[in-house]
Amino acid sequence: MIINIDIDSDFLKRRKREEAMGAISLRDIHKNFGAFPVVRGVDLEIADEEFMVFVGPSGCGKSTLLRMVAGLETISSGEMTLAGRRINDIEPRNRDIAMVFQDYALYPHMSVRENLAFGLKMRRAAPAEIDSRIAEAAEILQIGALLDRRPSELSGGQRQRVAMGRAIVRRPLVYLFDEPLSNLDAKLRVEMRLQIKRLHQLLRTTTIYVTHDQTEAMTLADRITVLKDGLIEQVGTPTELYDQPNSLFVAQFIGSPA
Ligand code: ADP
Ligand code: MG
Fold first, then answer.
1. Which of 36, 63, 178 maximizes ligand 1 atoms within 8 Å of its Cβ, making it the mutation to test the pocket?
2. What letter would DSSP give residue 173?
3. What digits encode the pLDDT tens for the residues 142-195?
4. What is the phi-psi region of residue 188: left when phi exceeds 0, alpha when psi lies from -120 to 50, beta otherwise?
5. What range(s) does the ABC transporter domain occupy (predicted)?
6. pLDDT at 79
7. Are 156 and 181 within 8 A, CB to CB?
8. What is the pLDDT of residue 19?
9. What pTM was computed for the model?
10. Strands 51-55 and 223-228, bridge-based pairing
């Protein structure tokens, strides 16, 4: 699909003015569930505007790490900052971070437009501002024709777009994606992957994207973090990881001949 967008919003100007507003720093992050350590000391700097992909086997702690960044899970120990501000104890809704889930999590009784507006209304945005942000998101995601439908009247791919739209209208400093495309069929996955790439090229919003799909990781990432058993195994650009995996584990995960 070809998308032709000309956005000259205050948002983009604001982004240009303020430096490193989307930089995230994770320092010695731990998470225990009861006595069970799931994240065991993660140190990671994510640059403003960076597209960071987390990969690793099922159960290695990717979702838990992401949920801690979102504030949906408490941190057992360590420190997280966003744009230099400590966010450990800040409520999820005040973090300026938007998360897109695999299961869409749309409100079934609301139209697409109401789904997009809901978070903004909760934040007491002005009606004109809500309308213009919805129009912008609808243009970016090509969902203008769907605004009066209910989620039950949408295909999987359309629902996923609306879920992304809900993140876009908030204009957060950071997007978090937890395997957003894994419920879609192969053709749609490719289409949505391109859409997500376009979205990032357009808005340059710092993104952390969890996936177990190597193609998604290699094509979307500025850098990839490979996780194993709650620890970082390696961080690097797709090329670095492919050319110089520092372990057989990374080599096998990235798919290079070991
Ligand atoms: P991933 O997303 O990499 O597959 P998760 O972060 O979901 O891994 O899970 C990491 C580990 O933490 C798994 O062993 C999982 O069973 C465990 N876990 C996740 N959430 C909870 C929870 N709320 N209570 C107890 N254990 C959990
Ligand atoms: Mg997970």
1. 63
2. S
3. 899 999 999 999 998 899 889 989 999 988 999 999 998 887 888 888 988 998
4. alpha
5. 24-254
6. 98
7. no
8. 60
9. 0.89
10. parallel
Report d(CA 104, CA 133) in Å as an integer: 20
Q: How far is the CA of 62 from the centre of ligand 1 (A)?
A: 8
Nearest CA to ligand 1 atom 19: 64
Measured CA to CA in angstroms, residue 135 lies from 118, 131, 145, 216, 236 at distances of 15, 6, 11, 28, 37
Output the six-digit token pair for 91: 């409520």
Q: How far is the CA of 62 from the centre of ligand 2 (A)?
A: 6
CA 56/CA 211 separation, integer angstroms: 8
pLDDT, the chain, mean:
89
Q: For residue range 201-241, list pLDDT tens digits in order.
A: 988 999 999 998 889 999 999 999 999 999 999 999 999 99
**Cβ–ligand 1 contact at 59 (below 6 Å):** yes
- C-beta of 245 in contact with ligand 1 (< 6 A): no
Q: Is 64 in the pocket of ligand 1 (CB under 6 A)?
A: yes
- What's the CA gap between 223 and 239, in Å, rounded? 9
Distance of CA 228 to the CA centre of its chain: 20
- DSSP class per residue in 65-100: HHHHHHTSS--SEEEEEETTEE-TTS-GGGS-EEEE
**C-beta separation of 178 from 98 below 8 A:** no
Residues counted in the chain: 258
Adjacency order of strands within the sheet including 223-228: 97-100, 174-178, 206-210, 51-55, 223-228, 231-236
Q: Does 144 sit in the ligand 1 pocket, CB within 6 Å?
A: no
